[in-house]
Amino acid sequence: VHTMVVDADRACREAGSYKALNMALLGAAASAGVLGIGMEELEQAIRERLPEKLHEINLRAARAGAKYMEG
Question: Is residue 8 a contact partner of residue 58, using CB atoms and an 8 Å limit?
Fold first, then answer.
């Protein structure tokens, strides 16, 4: 079991939307190494799988989640 603490409120404010909460948490998990993929792979998946208009906010959220993760 791996426990992480993420300041999700701060990460979402930095990303610019609370709608990006899920991506902030994915960024934290990727950064911690618990997903089996790293941040580079997560960012690549965002660019490849999401509509272009959603890239910026989701990339910001993932990076902010990684930044504000402790654990």
Answer: no
